Amino acid sequence: MVEPLENIANPSPQITDFSVLEEKIRSYLPAEKNNLVREAYDFAAKAHSGQMRKSGEPFLEHPLQTALILADLQLDASSLAAALLHDIPEDCGVPIATIQARFGPEVAKLVDGVTKLGKVPLTPSAAAASEAHAENLRKMLVAMAEDLRVVFIKLADRLHNMKTLSALSPERQLVIAQETLDIYAPLAHRLGIWELKWQLEDLAFHFIDPAKYRRIARLVVSRRAQREDFITEATEILKKELDKSGIRAELSGRPKHIFSISQKMDKYATIGKEFDDIHDLLALRVVVSSIPDCYSAVGVIHSLWHPLPEAFDDYIANPKPNGYQALHTAVMCLSNPLEVQIRTREMQFTDEYGVAAHWRYKEGGKPDIHFEEKIGWLRQLVAWHRELSGAEEFLESVKTDIFIDQVFVYTPKGEIKDLPKGSTPIDFAYLVHTELGHRCIGAKVNGRLVSFNYQLKNGDLIEIQTSKIAKGPSRDWLNPELGFTRTSQAREKIRAWFKKQERAENIERGREMLDKELKRLGVVIERQELAEMFNFNSLDDFMAALGYGGVTTHQVVAKVAAQTETPKPITGPVTSKPSSTSIQVMGMGNLMTHLALCCHPVPGDNIIGYITRSRGVTVHRKDCYNIVHEDELQRLVKVEWGDADSVYPVTVEIESWDRVGLMRDITTIVAEEDVNISSVATNPRGDYTSTTTLTLETKGLAQLSKLLKRIETVKGVISVSRAGAEYRGDTKSPDTK
Which residue out of 3, 90, 241, 697 is catalytically annotated? Predict the structure, then answer.
């Protein structure tokens, strides 16, 4: 599976005649279908005559290699013909109408789809807006839903282009390789075409990080003999036991490809492990005749070798969304951990070719009755895209709901639902039904009550508790810091609910939310200025967007902080405490600075300096009482934030009910945000409440906002806010400036 270093990014041997393709398609296509492919080849050879690629090979080589890749997937004749013709409209000026007249509407539609797809840039350039990027990706995925064969051809086209990528400039190599890793390889995975997925990943990795690619390849080769001896011995032992049990099986080793090894090495590095600690570089694959034999084989394996705990997965009863089926187990074999995969021959074929196998059956084999189930995620995507309000929301859906790992959970009726990894009970509720989400007031997982930000795990049984009346969702469910929702589908349905509420109510709610957040952080800014930052001309429109969740207070804080914080320098010392390097005094040289104790400014605040008589420049917030009432304006100087990695003391006041464990809960949250507490003072009152004052060392306004929101969710907390500046006497006193 690991390609030699010298071959991984080089083109396949040139075969510009039809014979090799003809030999492949004869093995699975009816004879009458061969004529269509032959005619397409002849037409392409004439159209591309005299054309050369940048790699120096005849242009015809590219469509022919594309068709050969699809023939390996055993795709239908129309797909192969379209693959041979796919560059003709763009590079030879032949109109689609001519192709339709010659080869029929089905082939013409596929060629037209691939041609249009080729014009869609899926990775945004430096100048391209993310909105355009999202819209392009939307077009591609919707085209998939209309006819998956368009994307099969595009994947094969990309694979051959990746094999000849060295002919392009280094800059283009990097852009195309990154696009392949971000878009095309995940698409192949989601469609279940493992044979294309691993090649696309390895080729892209080779160009993105060639040094790391070569290093891993050498490590793999250096241990190959040892691993192969181990697999050979394990195979011989297991084959004898299976034969004794009357189970006919084919056994083989399955090596991991280089990109997957790189990912595992990165994961292991975080827990202090190295390459030698990776024991599943080579798994054992057992292919049997029937599903009952799969389960019987597992019994033989577990009686022969000790199974490792929590290492058995049944993907036959619970297939993955891309159609993958097999039994996975891990055992301690000959003093080494060994991964074993058990499947039928049909499962083996589907693993290699995914939903592309459907077209094999269309050419005369038995129908694939589960085809629609295998692409259910794609049909769901098309339904979502009609509901989503804009391309940005669609891009969010793709990134969070499609191109990531899945978890499989059960409804109370035993139905299986798959969601993106990290999903919550609220995501589950909205996946089942919108109304179930709107009425959700609690959730049980495996019979136990859980919080709404509980992250679902494989095999969980979810039961949603509902109210009798539709109370509607909470706006907190849209707050990313609280972690109540993971999927864009759930967030879009929540936003839609709030958007349908009365506009006046949304405006008022938005104003309350904004005032509360700015007051809590001690930030003073013009509301109209904020609205314009988010491209709203009308302040009411901005407040309404806040009210229904189209804009979140988290986004507001991030925007305010970005407007005032200076980017971190590329070089220079990183300080753990505020220092003279943390503040830039404009036009005054390298003066000593320190932060005012009266208002405790942090990055994100609008600040100004006050030149003292003996202590350099004291930095205040512009809205500080002492600055607002300053008489000697000539002593004020413009200052800006410098090193963003410094930490700044901020005083926070927490009003709460007095209870046991309150400080433990608060300090746990502060520690999770990697914030230091430099001082704590608690003032209990006679009415069972207390005021707790914390001095926190934060990196800026965005971090402070996130932390205050989390503290506010602690049981018993009434309110939490940044302590305001107070007037402390003579405004000209150096001690207060």
Answer: 90
